[in-house]
Write a structure and sequence with these properties.
Elements (H helix, E strand, L loop, with lengths): L11 E5 L18 E6 L17 E7 L11 E2 L10 E2 L12 E14 L2 E7 L8 E7 L2 H4 L17 E4 L1 H14 L3 H10 L14 E6 L2 E7 L3 E9 L4
Parallel strand pairs: 9-12
Antiparallel strand pairs: 1-2, 1-8, 2-7, 3-6, 3-8, 4-5, 6-7, 10-11, 11-12
The chain binds S-adenosyl-L-homocysteine (SAH).
Length: 239
Amino acid sequence: MSNSPFQFDQIGIIHSCYRQKFGIPRQPGIVTAAEAELELLPPYNQENLVRGLEGFSHIWVHFIFHQTIDEGWRPTIRPPRLGGKQRVGVFATRSTHRPNPMGLSVVRLKSIESGNGKLILKLAEADLLDGTPVIDIKPYLPYADALPEAKGGFAPLPAVMAEVEFTEEAMAKCLSYEKRTGRSLVELVKQVLGQDPRPAYLRETTDRRHGSALWDVNVVWESKGDHFLVMDLEPYQQT
Ligand code: SAH
């Protein structure tokens, strides 16, 4: 028996283009080219449970920050938005390190597909790591959930997107990957790097090499001051 009065059941799992935390946008909706699937797990993989959901363009996904659970939490956080210097309370942030490691994302629902005993919600614009456990789904209600006049504290607007360029070799590899898989890799890379995934303490560096795992490729890139340059694509194997 758990000593907590609450216990949650995992209802689904995320399959996503994001194979590593590094590179995932800090909120959903920013990278529109991001694709993911939410697979409902037994006994929740029944069409009855999602009846009527197809009429909603967006859903709220409640999930567990499973990859950072073991790191625990601290009462204050230095959000990247404040240059990683100023501290604010954990409950004033969307940090992954919280007393209860629960995440909440609003994502686009493209379609609901079933077959072979599986029930899958096709998603877009998610900020979720591959393998993320899902604990609840709710429809997004524009009349109640969209509040254009709301104040955004220390993060009033999305961060400005930087330019992303490709070497000839990297672009050729991206295009052949797109042809082979049907995935929009070029757009995904532009959006993922454009929002500058680097932690605040590396923001001022140039010519430093980074790798971001998207799908099954490791995108090798460098920061060039005012823009990013994609150098190469390598195969990526999840460890
Ligand atoms: N929209 C959510 C998540 C915000 S934090 C919320 O507000 O609750 C966004 C970060 O969560 C991303 O940068 C990504 O690195 C991280 N993330 C996504 N899935 C995760 C997981 N399963 N475990 C740990 N961190 C995760």
